Amino acid sequence: MHSLAVFCASSDGTDSFIFEDAYEVGVFLARHKIELIYGGSKLGLMGQVARGALENNGIVTGVIPEFLKTKEVVHTGLSNLITTQDMHQRKLKMHDLSDGFIALPGGFGTLEELFEILTWAQLGLHKKPIGILNSHGYYDDLLEMMNNMVRKGLLREEYMNLVLVSGSILELYENMLNFKPMPVPKWMNKDQT
Predict the structure, then answer these.
(1) Which of 21, 39, 65, 114 could form a disulfide with 135 if both were Cys (CB 3.0 to 4.6 A apart)?
(2) Which UniProt keywords apply (predicted)?
(3) Is 25 helix (H, G, I), strand (E, B) or coil?
(4) Structural domain boundaries of the chain?
(5) How deeply is 183 buried, as exposed, middle or buried, from its count of CB atoms within 10 A (0-12, 13-18, 19+)?
(6) Each residue's pLDDT tens digit in the chain (193 positions)?
């Protein structure tokens, strides 16, 4: 695995442990020679991940839409900065540059990125591993909601296997290395008649 996209908040949040974990993810990626692909901001958890990687000689590529360059305060000290026209192009570019995806704590934008990339995997549009770093139980309620979707018959149980979850970046990374993608669902196979 040569590159990982990280989805996370552009806010600091109120939990110092989560803030520190974001920095440690950047450190981990740098020390394992994994390029960080992220949203390009110097603020919040996004800035922490980038700082952790950069301060440990990591390669960091930011991908930011033109209209967010001022709102998110673009990080000017990155290895690479790619500007896109809009959010859709940003997500597609991050997908194209990455060998896998990790969601750290975040808000609506982080969840939107996570669920879009999960949906693409469910539809067989990519076979890359997707991880959730459940930093200090941040995602416990979301994971319970996803399990409720399975219980209510609105999400097939095997699709939960698309989501790798751990509170440890090392364990999550090892699980991602061992990830076996699902076969493309039969109903998605164009050759089926």
Answers:
(1) 21
(2) Cytokinin biosynthesis, Hydrolase
(3) helix
(4) 3-179
(5) exposed
(6) 999 999 999 999 999 999 999 999 999 999 999 999 999 999 999 999 999 999 999 999 999 998 888 765 888 899 999 999 999 999 999 999 999 999 999 999 999 999 999 999 999 999 999 999 999 999 999 999 999 999 999 999 989 999 999 999 999 999 999 999 877 665 555 554 4
